Each structure stands twice: as C-alpha cells, then as structure tokens.
Amino acid sequence: MNTRPIPMTASTSSELGDAVERALARKDLPAASTALAEASTREIVHVLERLSPRQCAIAYRLLSKQEAIEVFEALSPGLQADLVHGLQDAEVAALFADLDPDDRVWLLDELPAAVAPRLLRGLSPHERDLTAAVLGYRRDSIGRRMSPEFVSTHPQLTAARTLQRMRERLDRAETIYTLPVTDGGLRVIGVVSLRDLLAADSDALVADLMHDAHTVSAESDAEQAARECTESGFLAVPVVDSEERLVGILTIDDAVRILRHEESEDAARQGGVEPLGRPYLSTPIRRIVRSRVVWLLVLAVGATLTVQVLSVFEATLEQLTVLALFVPLLIGTGGNTGNQAATTVTRALALGEVRPRDLLRVLTRELRVGLCLGLLLGALGFGITALVYDWQIGVVIGCTLLAVCTVAATIGGIMPVVARVIRVDPAVFSNPFITTFVDATGLVIYFVIARAVLGI
C-alpha cells in the first residue's frame, strides 16, 4: 500500500478534489496529474468517488502504474465496474490479473455476464482456476467471498518448518496471522497463530501449539459467516466444504467489507430505494432514477388503498368534517410505529438475536409494546383533543391511537420474520410496504371507531 505520510483530513481531501475537478474541467491534464501525484492512495480514492464516470477514467489514467493498482484495489466493486468501462482492454486485463481471486469475483458480480469470460481468458491457468473455484459458489454464500489463497500446516510439522512454508508462500497468501491445521485428508483439525509459532522452540510440533478451530461452511450465508467472524474476534476463519475439507479462508477485513456492503443494502431498501453499489456523486443520474422509480411506482399503487378507504367513508367525513383534520396525525403515527418495530426486528435478525422460529415471541412482544405505546399516546391525544374540541372527539382519537399503535407495532414486528421464513430480504418487507399497509388499516380503524362513538 502507499506509505507516503500525507494525512487525510476533510479539508485536504476536499481541496484536492476541487483542484482535480477544476483541472479536468479546463482539460488541464498536467495540473490534474500534479495534484494527484502529491496525494496518498486514500485521498485519491476519495477524489475518484466524487467524479463522474468519464472524469474518473481520465483521472485514473494519470496515475503511475503502481499507484493505479493500489487505488483500483481500494475502490468499491461498483466503482471498479464503472472504471472498467472507461479503460482500454489491455489496461483492464492488467488490473484484473493483479487482483486477488476474491476481489476479482466482487468485480465480476458488478459487470455484465458477457464481460466475465473475456477477463478470465486473460488470466494465467493457475489464477483462472483459483477464480473459477470461488465463482462456483452461489452469490450469497461465504464461498463466493472467501480467499482460496492461504497457508496451512500439519500437526506433525515443527514450528520451524511451518515458518519456512509461510515464507515460501508469503507473496500469495491472503493472511499469515492465523494458519489452519489440516490432517492428511485436508480436513481442518485446528488453527495455530503466527505469535505462537514465533514464540515456540524451533522443534516444537504444531500439534502442541494449535487450538480448536472455528470453521464456517462454504455454503453458509455470507452475512451470517462474516458476523460470526467479527463478533468472535478472529483474525481469520477457515472455510470448509461439506466434508470439512479446507477450501479457503475468511479474513477479518473481508468480513467487515461484507457487513458494510450488506448494511448499505438494508439501509437503502428500508428507505424504498435499490442500493446504488457505488458512491453517490459518481453514480450516473439515470442509475439513481432507476433505483428509485420502481419503488415509487409500487408505493403509488399501494397508496391507492388509502384513497379507496377515504372514498368508502366519504359520507362520514361530510357529516363531521373535523375528522379529516386528524387523518395525517393518525396515519403518520401508525406508519412511524410500524417502521420502528420493523427496523428493530430487522436488525435483530441480522445480528442473529431473532430467528424464524421466534415468530410467536416477536408477535407477543410487539403486541405488548404497541399496546403500551398506544395507551400513552392515546391518553395524550384524548386529553388534548377533548380540551380543544369535545370529549367524544377525544375518545375517538384516543381509542384510534391505541388501536393503530398496537396493530402497527405487531405487523411491523412480524413482517421481517415472515420475510426471512419465505427467504425474502427482510429489508424489502420493511418501511415502505408497512407504511402503506398501516395507512389503509389505520383509516379503517379510525372511521369504524368514529361511527361507533359518534353514531354517524
């Protein structure tokens, strides 16, 4: 990595970005090249994330060969894919060959399917085999994100011999800080740390130094495996196949990268948009529009339920127009309550605190939570409304808030669990759909209570 001691602060990074953008706008490439030459890898990445795809490709070509490789590895897969389209085939082939196998797969997942065979053909047979092994696993599995480049050892080897094996493969290994220990059939029987190897006598056997291994199956969900790795504090976790044979390794930095990617997707979908997969400022306008328009259309269709409910109770509104004043309050409160429950449970699912079999427990807990919230808000709503209007309107508002909060919290809580049961992303079932559902249901509850209390 770049070792130039240039600290990255918000001000220096912003000034560099402005300088490069101005130089590119003037087509003053020497000035842009000079500005980039004085920056660290991290600062250059920050600058490229703010440029349009065309400007990004131009700026990238101004980097030295070694700097270009380091910067490309530090970019997000989405931005790498955009950059690939702006470079010549020879440049792309060289960059692709310099990536680690797992990083190549991240990039290939962002590129059109027709591009992958062309890039793979440019690799050496050994690198092609390593990459193909990772590509063979399904997209959401940890096998797709593991590194097939690792150093392993045997229980009957000495510490000195293991260290020698490590030095021989140092330039190809993903990590050397945690080494899997395998038997003759490549089955993982333990792990040994570099610290223990260095501290041991040269003739000490690995069998006496190794610890129990925590492994993950290559077919396991990537997010779940990454969370296990980070929460357990392991620097690396061996990845095994169905017969417990070692096929790869998951390092802590890759685990953090997976979790960051998954959490970005969840946050986007909870907000009713498709994940961009690349920095906001470097994303083309058409892609941002495409990421939002489908959800808006779906929600617009769903909102017709609210319109239909209002039309059904139009006569009720005509008899007592004051009821219309409270519609925004009630549907807003219901939507917010449902979203709070959905966000909490979705997070608990991601952390493994809640499982599909806990559906009934989640339902009863959110029912009680919604009831408590409804009692508090309902009492407040009754008091204020009764003072401003009259006690009957206060009863309607108080009872409606009680019912709406209870229903919204219950539905919002169980929706993510139901989504996990039917193998759908819980984030998709969250805020946008829950808001639409609770709006329509809340209005029905409101007008039914109003008719019963006011006799209209």
Helix content: 55-70%
Assigned CATH superfamily of the largest domain: SLC41 divalent cation transporters, integral membrane domain
Radius of gyration over C-alpha positions, nearest whole angstrom = 29 Å
What structural class is derived from the secondary structure elements?
Answer: mainly alpha
What's the total count of β strands?
A: 5
- H/E order of the elements? HHHHHHHHHHHEEHHEHEEHHHHHHHH
How many domains is the backbone divided into? 3
As for the CATH topology of the largest domain, it is Tetracycline Repressor, domain 2
Q: Tell me the β content.
A: 5-15%
Name the CATH architecture of the largest domain.
Answer: Orthogonal Bundle
Continuous helix count: 22
Query: How can the largest sheet be summarized?
Result: 3 strands, mixed
- The coarse overall form would be globular
- Could you give the order of strands across the largest sheet? 3-4-5
Low-pLDDT runs of 5+ residues are: 1-10
In CATH's first tier, which class of the largest domain applies?
Mainly Alpha
Mean pLDDT, all residues: 83
User: What is the straight-line distance between the termini?
Assistant: 74 Å
GO cellular component, one term: plasma membrane
Transmembrane segments: 293-313, 319-337, 367-389, 395-421, 433-454
Keywords: CBS domain, Cell membrane, Magnesium, Membrane, Metal-binding, Transmembrane, Transmembrane helix, Transport
Organism: Microbacterium ginsengiterrae
